[in-house]
Amino acid sequence: MSTGRTGALLPAFLFAATGLHAESHGSEPLSAIDWLSRSVATPAAMPLPPSVSIEPPVASDITRDPITVMPLDAPSLDAIGLLPVARTGLPRDLWGTTASSELARLIRAERVDALPAMQAFLYMLLLAELAPPLDSDMRGELFLARIDKLLDLGALDPALALLEQVETPQAEPFRRWFDIALLTGQEDRACEVMRETPDIAPTFPARVFCLARGGDWNAAALSLRTGEALGYIDPDMSALLERFLDPELFEGEADLPMPARPSPLVLRLMEAIGQPLPTTTLPVAFAQADLRSNAGWKTRLEAGERLARSGAIEPNRLLGLYTERKAAASGGVWERVSAIQALDAALAVGAPDAVARTLPAAWQRVAEMELEVPFAALYGRRVADLGLTGAAGALAFRIGLLSDDYEAVALARSPADAEERFLVGLATGRSAGTTPNDQMGAAIHAAFATEAGRSPEFAELVAEKRLGEALLLTVDRITDGVRGNLRSITEGLQFLRGVGLESTARRTALELVLLERRG
């Protein structure tokens, strides 16, 4: 295992902010498996020609498993990844003896509102190219769980990159690919693949949508009527598809009611009939639809902030949105736009006094949205290197500690007080002799002031070759520890250090001290 270098080797989007911002006003956010479109019939129906067929697809509520045949040497979906071992430092056999079903359960249970360092580490586990679990089979249970968690995080680009490595089209992976295409404006490509892949049996709503997108309106109408007659299209979807196919028939009529739990297919159909849905209350993946060029600047700004907070887009993409043009109004997102543009202009001309004036306001604005870590990725090292003094210098130091260059920033700082000495100790891994100023700091200090070790529970998991399971539990424990279980913080940080993930442990410790995250 690598020691402390894992973070520097990952793609930039892994380090975008992932704060504890509530996406659903205190309730648990919907998982991807709750909002995916019913676009593909499973088990797969008989092969279909590209043109419409009136034969019904196999009902999606059939529960018996299909009989599958695969070569003995067929690659497992669970082995697909984007980040090779040489880049992650993780052992290839990380999943070890843990059952695929248990790994899938743990991954789906991980919260999307973890600390940024924990979120970045979770991304690495989801994208790593590893040996499949010992019980892995053709269904790719672990692979689908990884994809679903990426969808929960709104990280559609890496999810799509994983799905495009599936050599033989299968219903469940394609279902997720289809929805990503709908959310990113690639629906015509998705429909083309559906038409050209006879092993993928579209449900009637998806078939109607794709036939219409392809210009075959008569076949789409016939397919709609057939689906209604056979009971494969529910009344709400039927009313939506009718307006989609012939909106002129419904001119002057009341709008359709807003769907309570829309899928990406419903989102695109509602948009097509002139009733676009706001995505701010929908799962974060839907915000990707608002990044398309046909959306207004404010809509794209708000979507970009949500996605940056979940680590789904790179900080530079958010900066591009903030600096696209001058703020159009005041209040809300426009205050952040103005504050960041003012700081960016001061840095561009290399004016330390101007930076000292504009930095506090910019920091306050991004902190309100829990976007501190992407902000630090953009500006942390730059402001820390300016040699600012007083309150502005102390703030610049703390922002620099939230950047990738946290250790260099710490080594360059002459601590002004006991708190700064503690922060320098955490960033450099030499916290012995420093003094924390609260209970959270004491829990963190305990993890770094002693030799890295592991709790009996984690030690047992490692001994049983279940390291990946232990790491997933560590992410979960530290996330829960933020809300008050300080013992979990100590044990989680100790375990990360004990298995060579020193950089992840330090970044997590710094965020626990510097970010206001208490549930």
Number of helices: 25
Shape: globular
Q: SS-based structural class?
A: mainly alpha
How much of the sequence lies in strands comes to under 5%
Relative helix content: 40-55%
Give helix and strand order, one letter per element, not per position: HHHHHHHHHHHHHHHHHHHHHHHHH
Low-confidence runs: 1-26, 43-72
Give the biggest sheet: none
Q: What is the tally of beta strands? A: 0
Indicate the radius of gyration in whole angstroms. Answer: 25 Å
End-to-end gap: 32 Å
Mean of pLDDT:
88
Please, could you describe this protein's structure?
This protein starts with 31 loop residues before the first helix and ends in a 5-residue tail after the last helix. It contains 25 helices and no strands. The protein has a domain at 13-60 and 78-251 and 261-272. It is globular and about 75 Å long. It has helices at residues 32-35, 85-88, 100-109, 116-127, 141-153, 156-163, 171-183, 187-196, 204-213, 217-230, 235-245, 264-272, 297-309, 315-322, 333-348, 352-368, 372-384, 390-401, 406-411, 418-428, 439-449, 456-463, 467-481, 486-498, 502-514. By secondary structure, the protein is an all-alpha fold.
